[in-house]
Design goal:
Elements: H1 2-18, E1 20-25, E2 33-34, E3 40-41, H2 43-55, E4 58-63, H3 66-75, E5 79-85, H4 88-91, E6 94-101, E7 106-111, E8 130-133, H5 137-144, E9 153-156, H6 159-167, E10 173-177, E11 187-189, E12 201-206, H7 211-226
Parallel strand pairs: 1-4, 1-5, 8-9, 8-10
Antiparallel strand pairs: 2-3, 5-12, 6-12, 7-10, 7-11
Helix pairs in contact: 2-7
């Protein structure tokens, strides 16, 4: 009798485990952030939580540095990452639920009082020092444009550190998502170009995830997207 009870308990635990997903994100207010009570909040977080509830899935959310979150989502089954821009390079590495939120905008920023900085293109910033978040679309873009870490590129895992370094003069520019720039009294876009144009902001699913979980997520996402995540 004890054997069957243990077996039943094991089967139940395995069933719960199969229906659980692991969500990873970064500290990127107002989209995703940890509040003073240690809870993960944010506009994108709320939509993801709504999706999990609608799909009837158990879940956990962990806030990590972006590069670590990306690596975990890419290598671990039943792991999802948000908010992630769908680029051609990333496209085949995940299954996608897009768009999760309205499009994000990535700009080259500088201090308003740096009148000596007047670039006409991103290439003009190569003679200066530009900061980006490690593993981000901005980081990849700068590398593709020929920026070199340790020469004209500074990379960190913390967006707040980037904006702090910009304010204290350690950086000339930062290439960031517009929602992460809060000190708009002192920081302005150095170029009008949105470097993330045409890239949807999404929730990405590890390709090795349970097919039933993916099916439930995709069905619920389609339903919620039809009402822009406004349920009756």
């Amino acid at each position: 009798m004890k054997y069957w009870l243990l077996l039943l308990a094991l089967v139940s635990c395995l069933s719960i485990a199969r229906n659980k997903v692991f969500l990873v994100t970064e500290q990127l207010p107002p989209l995703s952030y940890v509040d003073k009570q240690g809870q993960v909040r944010g506009n994108a977080t709320e939509r993801v939580q709504q999706l999990m509830h609608h799909a009837g899935l158990d879940y956990s959310i962990e806030v990590l540095p972006w590069k670590r979150a990306y690596k975990q989502a890419e290598s671990s089954a039943n792991t999802l990452i948000f908010t992630i821009l769908k680029t051609p390079t990333r496209s085949e590495r995940f299954d996608w639920l897009c768009p999760l939120i309205p499009p994000l905008e990535v700009y080259l920023y500088k201090l308003k009082n740096r009148h000596d900085l007047a670039p006409n293109s991103l290439a003009d910033a190569k003679t200066s020092l530009v900061g980006a978040s490690r593993g981000s679309v901005a980081h990849s873009l700068l590398l593709n444009q020929g920026f070199i870490e340790g020469k004209n590129l500074m990379v960190t895992t913390n967006i707040d550190v980037l904006t702090q370094n910009l304010r204290n003069g350690r950086l000339d520019y930062v290439l960031l998502i517009n929602t992460s720039v809060h000190d708009t009294d002192n920081i302005t876009a150095a170029l009008p170009e949105n470097f993330s144009r045409d890239l949807p902001a999404c929730l990405a699913i590890n390709k090795q995830s349970d097919p039933q979980i993916k099916q439930r997520l995709m069905a619920s996402f389609t339903t919620l997207r039809a009402t822009n995540f406004h349920q009756p």
